[in-house]
């Protein structure tokens, strides 16, 4: 039985700052399983027992301090604004993600005090905010030159752990209409089969 570690100190961060240019419409407002993707993503975090949630993006609670700095620009802005002790980052465009996978990240991260993500995938990402992460963000954004640092460079600079993946479809990223249709098709299949990862 998995121990349900206290998660009130984990801030859920929804990344909704992308321009959705390849999708052609605002991904946050797309309808999935009867809700907007924004509501659906909030529900995924809530079902993983993450109660404190902030949306990162120009039109939401936490706009980027530095524009066009990519996902880490959004994460940097949230850390500066909210000073969390740990964050769980989930992009707005992963409709098939499962709460138990998010719980797995949190449990592992809180036990090891390391950043945790799944093999082959940078997101979702659990990250404790500590001296390692603060040093990375301070250095990366003190000399910002127009292009934000990569998630890969972050994970190389801080203690991190990778978890193995059993079902890759949970990690489908819906950047284009084709990806979106694939996710809708899989969701319809899954609701019939009630697949378990």
TrEMBL record:
Domain MobA-like NTP transferase: 12-137
GO molecular function terms noted in the UniProt entry: GTP binding; metal ion binding; nucleotidyltransferase activity
Organism: Thalassotalea agarivorans
Transferase recorded as keyword: yes
Keyword line: Cytoplasm, GTP-binding, Magnesium, Metal-binding, Molybdenum cofactor biosynthesis, Nucleotide-binding, Transferase
Name used for this protein in its record: Molybdopterin-guanine dinucleotide biosynthesis protein A
GO biological process: bis(molybdopterin guanine dinucleotide)molybdenum biosynthetic process
Gene3D superfamilies in UniProt: Spore Coat Polysaccharide Biosynthesis Protein SpsA, Chain A
PANTHER family: MOLYBDENUM COFACTOR GUANYLYLTRANSFERASE
């Amino acid at each position: 039985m998995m121990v349900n570690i206290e998660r009130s100190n984990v801030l859920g961060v929804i990344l909704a700052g992308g321009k959705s240019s390849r999708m052609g419409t605002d991904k946050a407002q797309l309808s999935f399983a009867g809700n907007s993707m924004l509501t659906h993503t909030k529900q995924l975090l809530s079902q993983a027992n993450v109660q404190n949630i902030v949306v990162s993006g120009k039109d939401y609670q936490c706009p980027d301090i530095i524009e066009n700095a990519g996902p880490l620009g959004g994460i940097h802005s949230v850390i500066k604004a909210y000073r969390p002790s740990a964050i769980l980052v989930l992009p707005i465009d992963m409709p098939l993600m499962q709460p138990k996978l998010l719980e797995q990240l949190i449990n592992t991260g809180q036990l090891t005090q390391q950043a945790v993500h799944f093999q082959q995938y940078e997101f979702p990402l659990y990250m404790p905010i500590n001296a390692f992460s603060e040093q990375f963000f301070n250095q990366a954004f003190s000399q910002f030159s127009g292009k934000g640092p990569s998630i890969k460079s972050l994970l190389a600079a801080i203690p991190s752990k990778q978890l193995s993946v059993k079902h890759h479809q949970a990690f489908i990223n819906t950047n284009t209409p084709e990806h979106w249709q694939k996710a809708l098709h899989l969701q319809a299949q899954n609701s019939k089969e009630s697949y378990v990862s």
